[in-house]
Amino acid sequence: MRYSSIIRGQSHEFDGLVELLAKASPRRSGDELAGCAAVSETERTAAQWALADVPLADFLTEDVVPSDTDEVTRLILDGHDRAAFAPVSSLTVGGFRDWLLATATRPDAAGTLAGLAPGLTPEMVAAVSKLMRNQDLIAVSRAVQMTTAFRTTIGGAGRLATRLQPNHVTDDATGVAAAVLDGLLLGCGDAVIGINPASDSPATTRRLLELLDQVRTRYDIPCQTCVLTHVTTTLQLIEQGAPVDLVFQSIAGTQAANRSFGIDLALLAEAHDAGRSLGRGTVGQHVMYFETGQGSALSAGAHLGVGGRPVDQQTLETRAYAVARAFDPLLVNTVVGFIGPEYLADAKQITRAGLEDNCCGKLLGLPMGVDVCYTNHADADADDMDDLAVLLAVAGTDFVITVPGGDDVMLGYQSLSFHDALFLRRSLGLRPAPEFERWLLRMGLLAEDGSVLEIDPRRSGLSELTA
Amino acid sequence: MNPDRPDDGALPAVSDFWSALSRTTRARIGLGRSGDALPTRRVLELRTDHAAARDAVHTVLDVPRLQADLQTDSGGGAAPVVHSAAGSRGEYLRRPDLGRRLAPDTVLPRQDADLAVVLADGLSPTALQRHGAPLLGALRRAAAGRLRLATPVIALQARVALGDRVAELLGTPAVVVLIGERPGLTTSDSLGAYLTHAPGLGTTDADRNCVSNIHPPEGLEYAVAAETVVRLALCARQLGRSGVDLKADVGLDALPGNGPSVLDAPLGRD
């Protein structure tokens, strides 16, 4: 299919959805690296005009990544719910933007959008996001309200959960415990206490799982723990009886990119079944934890679509959410500034990508969080992360990543700090997950107004955690 | 406030509790609170560390000084300089593919040697400026009588794979690239050494061996790093290839610093 538009008397042509989506994308370095970005701002808007006229139903008949060679495309098409799609089936992409923004202002927005989610494909959602301004992304994503649960409930109005990320350069038990204590005293950990291990060995993963499980049970903390290792290692550890709450895996939007991660849909299904078979959740049984990030397919050389053309990184990212939703995850987060300036060059691009990912994930029905982060070779700093964190909190993101002082000493990048979570919750009136909030109250860590008290760790009842 | 005196800036007494725990982790724990925010001292510490990392990325290599340091250490003429296809620092950061290609019309004289040595600025010119010459000196001492090193080449706006192209021009069967690693908040002057045997157009990162974290006195010592590189090069020559197989075959896993590196990842495959 060829698409075209005429801007100020000049005609612009686009060969298929792949080129149209790429050229309609807000500027980012990864698309320029892939060679699929618009060559001028005028061409970008020309593509957006053309994209606005594309019927949503066209995304069900024209592939972006070929269905005969890509199982993610087949998953998207086979799982499409025509009844759920019906309310928007006659709309164009531009009309869909208008419909979403109007819906977001209505009192029944949350129910309407939750009902619509199974009728949307990632390509439709990515397409409409490209026409949206940042405020549109925020307005629409904050209208989506849904929850998932394991030992805490993630999502829902007025809540902002946190992953407590106590990474350590040598996986030292006391050092990890010290960071866990620091985070708990600052009210963090309600989404998950999750470690990226420095060592990939199953023995280390098991030792860390047991450490976190002991801390959790000793203080009766309503939370879930996770050691973020490859899904095959987690499967092996489940078989050996290790205390696995959540099954983690990095995922991407094409079959080839997932293969570069050493996974496919069948393996994820096996892991999902194994995690659920343990029955360790108390208020829910959502057991999967997925991480994604724009640029992962390109970095694996697995970003090509129909006709061998490069697909833009935001569309591919949104396709990863279709993989996630097939396995009813507890948590999905995009690691938005981690991958480096060759994909997202600066704070403007990181901010835009964070808002897109949050909005697209939530529209597809996911419990969406963001690792608000940057590396030292990107043109961004802590002030930029403050800005993005506030925007995301307004946009109803379900959780954020938090590390001591905002400095992850193991992975070598900067994310949000525990302090940043205190700031976000107070500034925007957001509260921790309800089960975790009650525990904080029980432990004497909460003031009457719901804010986290500053107390001497030795008198907190938790200080033995590091003994 | 004096940045070098942690007691200057009066933190509350609970910091005793945290200072004991701080010996178990480099993570920034127990930072205290000013309301919900970080205390002034902590904000300035983070900003200072980030500034050092940013400066390390964007500092321009002082080429004449490095050439002089190399001559002091090893004698011979000034090391030749090559440029990648990246035209600016900004382009280098956004386009790793250009950092892997030589600028058009680059010429280097062919050399009869076993191992090409490329001194690359990478993501931390500061690291190369500080550790490049002493590491090369250690490498010469370690190689003496075992490997013939080519005259070193300085490479600007360079990624690891640029070394493959340099080796092709020099006609050497192997190359080691000494390159500034991506700066972190705690260390902004770390060098990595990447060895590639029989580099060519099909070479991928899986075909390389890496000795990372070279930045004495905190990081790996020059002599240890140099000995590791020489042993890897000798083993690779015997085996006919470098990379993942080499580590498994010759049992070098236990050597210090012979681990994965985040440098150039994740686009380093081509």
From TrEMBL, chain A:
GO terms for cellular component: cytosol; ethanolamine ammonia-lyase complex; ethanolamine degradation polyhedral organelle. It comes from the Bacteria. GO terms for molecular function: cobalamin binding; ethanolamine ammonia-lyase activity. Pfam families: EutB. One of its GO terms (biological process) is amino acid metabolic process. It catalyses: ethanolamine = acetaldehyde + NH4(+). It is an enzyme of class 4 (lyase). Substrate binds at R163, L164, Q165, N196, E291, D371. Keywords: Bacterial microcompartment, Cobalamin, Cobalt, Lyase. The keyword Repeat does not apply. Belongs to the EutB family. Catalyzes the deamination of various vicinal amino-alcohols to oxo compounds. Allows this organism to utilize ethanolamine as the sole source of nitrogen and carbon in the presence of vitamin B12. The basic unit is a heterodimer which dimerizes to form tetramers. The heterotetramers trimerize; 6 large subunits form a core ring with 6 small subunits projecting outwards. This is Ethanolamine ammonia-lyase large subunit. It comes from Nakamurella leprariae.
TrEMBL record, chain B:
It catalyses: ethanolamine = acetaldehyde + NH4(+). Coiled coil: none annotated. It comes from the Bacteria. Binds between the large and small subunits. Its cofactor is adenosylcob(III)alamin. Keywords: Bacterial microcompartment, Cobalamin, Cobalt, Lyase. InterPro entries: EutC (IPR009246), EutC_C (IPR042251), EutC_N (IPR042255). It is an enzyme of class 4 (lyase). Pathway: Amine and polyamine degradation; ethanolamine degradation. Its EC number is 4.3.1.7. One of its GO terms (biological process) is ethanolamine catabolic process. Adenosylcob(III)alamin binds at V160, E181, C210. One of its GO terms (cellular component) is ethanolamine ammonia-lyase complex. One of its GO terms (molecular function) is cobalamin binding. It is found in: Bacterial microcompartment. PANTHER family: ETHANOLAMINE AMMONIA-LYASE LIGHT CHAIN, ETHANOLAMINE AMMONIA-LYASE SMALL SUBUNIT. Catalyzes the deamination of various vicinal amino-alcohols to oxo compounds. Allows this organism to utilize ethanolamine as the sole source of nitrogen and carbon in the presence of external vitamin B12. The basic unit is a heterodimer which dimerizes to form tetramers. The heterotetramers trimerize; 6 large subunits form a core ring with 6 small subunits projecting outwards. HAMAP family: EutC. Belongs to the EutC family. This is Ethanolamine ammonia-lyase small subunit. It comes from Nakamurella leprariae.
